[in-house]
């Protein structure tokens, strides 16, 4: 009886079957957060370097599960949306929904590869799902609830969800790629990443001295308009520092009610209309860097909020309904329209009046 050929065929078949299962290309490393010295394990999958641990940097709007420091060492902090953006270290970013989808495609075994820890969630005064669910913020926010991703323990699938910005969730970060920017465009449920070389917008910087108090503001010419490249910081009734802290004014300027904003604008300048903001957004894709946007938050309903998470500006467009305002989320170069009441205290940028023709 000739058994050897049969064994050879079986051996070759097994080798072929095993050869189909190729491990995902990955390379582990580490990253030290210069802010607090914490060391995070990292992993390179495809063209991206991901943190292989949950972020654990302490900021306002972040907490350990049930405030237990023992859990923080295992699961990291739970962050609200704007706290998550503020906590991301320099050189890294909050991943888009598309980047999570790409990770899922590149790495079927992402639970083990990324060392996923099931740190649960926090909302409405309740901690939940510790040890059974890992939920992460994406940076994809189109005015509706933010797109989040989650993994249930025992199920390797990555699912999409939508949750409000007040939910506190885990955070993973992706390393920025040198020489490129990532812009997010939300369209029909698909988050597209467009990578392009850094090209400075046509710009011409200068300065303006406010003769009322001697403050000097940097300015920038974009298209045919000259904008302040700093938030207004003129003292007037109806304006205040974020948190009542004067040190914040040096960085973020003051927060103004609508009428206070109009009163504070210096002679020869004006509060921009919604149309002027929209024109600026079209003429200047790299708005955050060109206008040196500082994320000074806002004040309303008795609360300061979103410092280093969001920049919100008044427009002069007021049609009897709540005012049109403009906001930019940190980590997202998109200029978005909103409507807020005149009592909200927001940041102010001014545009130079153009001489009459």
Automatic annotation (TrEMBL):
User: What UniProt keywords apply to this chain's record, in alphabetical order?
Assistant: Signal
Signal sequence annotation: 1-19
- Which InterPro entries does the annotation name? Fib_succ_major
List each copy of the Fibrobacter succinogenes major paralogous domain by range. 43-105, 220-283
Q: What is this protein called?
A: Uncharacterized protein (TIGR02145 family)
């Amino acid at each position: 009886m000739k058994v050897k050929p049969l064994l050879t065929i079986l051996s070759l078949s097994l080798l072929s079957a095993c050869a189909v299962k190729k491990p995902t290309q990955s390379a582990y490393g580490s990253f030290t957060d210069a802010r607090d010295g914490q060391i995070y394990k990292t992993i390179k999958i495809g063209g991206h370097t991901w943190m292989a641990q949950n972020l654990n940097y302490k900021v306002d709007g972040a907490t350990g599960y049930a405030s237990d420091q023992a859990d923080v060492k295992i699961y990291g902090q739970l962050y609200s949306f704007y706290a998550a953006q503020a906590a991301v270290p320099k050189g890294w970013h909050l991943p888009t929904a598309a980047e999570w989808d790409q990770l899922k495609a590149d790495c079927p075994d992402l639970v083990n590869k990324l060392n996923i820890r099931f740190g649960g969630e926090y909302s409405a005064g309740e901690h939940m799902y510790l040890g059974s669910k890992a939920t992460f913020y994406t940076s994809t926010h189109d005015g509706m609830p933010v797109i989040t991703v989650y993994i249930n323990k025992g199920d390797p699938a990555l699912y999409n969800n939508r949750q409000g910005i007040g939910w506190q969730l885990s955070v993973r970060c992706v390393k920025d790629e040198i020489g490129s920017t990532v812009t997010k465009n939300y369209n029909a449920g698909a988050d597209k990443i467009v990578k392009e070389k850094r090209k400075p917008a046509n710009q011409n910087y200068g300065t303006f001295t406010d003769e009322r108090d001697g403050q000097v503001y940097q300015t920038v010419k974009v298209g045919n308009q000259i904008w302040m490249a700093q938030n207004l910081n003129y003292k007037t009734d109806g304006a205040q520092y974020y948190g009542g802290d004067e040190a914040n004014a040096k960085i973020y300027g003051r927060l103004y009610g609508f009428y206070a904003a109009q009163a504070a604008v210096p002679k020869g300048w004006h509060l921009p209309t919604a149309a002027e903001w929209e024109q600026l957004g079209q003429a200047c894709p790299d708005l955050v860097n060109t206008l040196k946007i500082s994320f000074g938050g806002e004040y309303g309903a008795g609360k300061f909020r979103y410092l280093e998470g969001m920049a919100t500006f008044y427009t002069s467009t007021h049609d009897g309904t709540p005012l049109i305002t403009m906001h930019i989320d940190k980590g997202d170069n998109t200029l978005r329209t909103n409507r807020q009441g005149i009592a909200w205290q927001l940041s102010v940028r001014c545009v130079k009046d153009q001489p009459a023709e």
